[in-house]
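Task card 7
Instruction: Convert sequence to structure tokens.
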Amino acid sequence: MEFQGLKQLRKHVPDLRSPGRCALIGLIAITIIGLETAFFLAADHYWPSWTLDGQVIMITLAFLVIGQFFWRKEQYQERYKKRAYRNAFARYALPGLAMKMAAVAHVAYMPGPAIPVQWWTPGITLIGVYFIIVGIALWARAIWAFGADNLAMLYVYFPEEGRMVQSTIYGLIRHPTYAAVVRIAFGLALLNGNWFAITFALLVPLGLTGWLRLVEEKELIERFGQIYAEYRRKVPAFWPRVGDWGKFMKCLLSGK
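Output:
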């Protein structure tokens, strides 16, 4: 069974039809993650007191890089025509996403002032494990429902091929993939057990809210109009409403 939306994505990105090109794309992403991780390790070693500042700077750069994918759309469509999406994704979205992954992973090992070891320490560890497990499960459910085409933001350059995703999870939270990142960041920060990591984890949903309001949801409202504006009003972005908690957990476990 082919992953939903992959056929549509291959239609506009011929590189994905070749196993060699797919491997190259993966290698580029891994290289970017490796280089950023090397930067974090060096910065953590030589300037540990600045690790939180470096983390914020790197995640901001990641969003600025991905932002070019949206902000240069008209320029790329005029210049590259049918290859506009492919070129913009390769130059901006792919590197930016890899940078974000490295920054979130850094939460697990970034140095900082330790939380005192007390009676609450085992509880904090259990909560951290819980957030990571729920985050991974939510991410898996979201990408399966979202599909490869939407996950790769194909709709930005080909809005006529965009589709509203009909899935239980999207009736509970608007952005389950970002919600998964929020949970994983919290979990990693709690397991790390220092204040810098926890501070950054608390900043993640704030930063994502700004990004969504200024970039992604702005584009979605332009494309779907009042339908999406009403959906945004009714459905929370990252955390389900208290009354929907049972449905949320059921959806994670069963997909329904």
